[in-house]
Write a structure and sequence with these properties.
It is an enzyme of class 3 (hydrolase). Helix content is 35%, strand content 15%. The chain is an alpha/beta fold.
Length: 361
């Protein structure tokens, strides 16, 4: 394949980086995972993935790169000095739509999210139930589209909802809806991780859809499957967006929003965009009344890493410092009773503020 080699050489000289070569699979049906920039990738059996997520606090995160073929993404996942994401705009350092955002925030609450949390389960059933729920909320406005985004490796389609704006440029918020507790058959209620993130995105969507919000930029609400098995759902979605040449102005991730002993959320500073983080800090301070803390969460810790790997500006607002997070996640004890609803409320306030403000970027 001379032609392919020539292209690879060109790409290498342009980026001054050597291409990431995947090791060959030792057997069929195995998955290739990568847990750091330096990690050349390890083939593991699918079932072993579940034991690796037992304790998120102590666990090593990883990204499943089995299906990632884009050299740009593979190189970015291995780059020691990552270049910042390409941005189509500059984020402002003041907020111009506070009254409008506050009027939507005033119609948000935690009653819907509390009810939602009670009825959530994981797996394919959850994917279909969520899809129906989002469709129901979308019926408020005929312009809104809702789709299931299928994944080739697991039966848990992601759900993508879109409130079209005057521009096709995208302002996105996302959360994963799968949960894990050590093995495929384990009961994994996943209340904090990540039913809370899922209902934060749902409530933001409900308020803006039912309130008839007409954004300038297009707003998208994503719920991903397959996060706990190596960010597979979000990797597929953002690979598709990159291949389609979509312009993503900002991606904000919601993963764990309901356990915060300090009462202050944290902006995750690694594998995120520092300019977008400064804007998120402004939004959190305005809409929750609290200056957020900052923390890092490591390689492949959640779906923002998929947006970032595909070259899109990403941010992640986490419930607290990473060492003060819920001790129950990835166990049968990650249940409704442990949820701190004031934390969920803060994330909803921030999310609606973000979506309204960024819709004007
Ligand atoms: Zn999670």
């Amino acid at each position: 394949m001379v032609f392919k080699a020539a292209i690879a050489a060109l790409a290498a000289s342009a980026q001054l980086a050597s291409a990431f070569e995947k090791p060959a699979a030792p057997a069929q049906g195995m998955r290739l995972i990568k847990s750091s920039e330096e990690d050349p990738g390890q083939w593991i059996f699918k079932e072993d993935k579940y034991t690796m997520v037992k304790s998120k606090r102590g666990r090593k995160h990883y990204i499943d790169i089995t299906n990632i073929e884009d050299d740009f993404v593979l190189e970015r996942l291995s780059a020691k000095n990552r270049v910042a994401a390409q941005k189509a705009i500059e984020y402002p350092d003041t907020l111009g739509h506070v009254d409008e955002a506050q009027s939507f925030i005033s119609s948000a609450g935690t009653e819907g999210p509390q009810l939602g949390l009670k009825h959530l389960t994981s797996g394919t059933e959850a994917a279909n139930r969520l899809f129906k729920k989002v469709q129901d909320l979308a019926s408020a406005n005929a312009a809104i589209t809702v789709e299931q985004f299928p994944h080739s490796d697991f039966d848990q389609p992601s759900v993508l909802a879109r409130i079209p704006g005057k521009s096709e440029n995208l302002v996105i918020i996302g959360a994963h809806f799968d949960s894990a507790a050590g093995k495929p058959s384990a009961a994994a209620p996943g209340a904090d991780d990540n039913a809370t993130g899922m209902v934060v995105v749902l409530e933001s969507f409900r308020v803006l859809a039912q309130g008839g919000f007409e954004p300038e930029n297009t707003l998208e609400f994503h719920w991903y499957g397959g996060e706990e098995i190596g960010l597979v759902g979000s990797a597929d979605v953002f690979a598709h967006y990159r291949a389609a040449g979509k312009t993503v102005l900002s991606y904000v991730n919601q993963d764990m929003a309901g356990y915060s002993p300090s009462g202050t959320p944290a902006i995750i500073t690694d594998y995120t965009d520092s300019d977008l983080n400064a804007y998120v800090k402004l939004l959190v301070t305005e809409y929750t009344g609290q200056a957020p803390n900052e923390d890092a969460c490591g390689y492949g810790c959640s779906d923002h890493a998929s947006a970032d790997a595909n070259g899109f500006p990403a941010a992640f607002l986490f419930e607290d410092f990473t060492n003060q997070t819920s001790p129950y996640i990835h166990t049968v004890n990650d249940t409704l009773g442990t949820i701190m609803w004031d934390a969920v409320e803060r994330h909803i306030q921030f999310s609606i503020g973000y979506l309204v403000e960024a819709s004007y970027l």
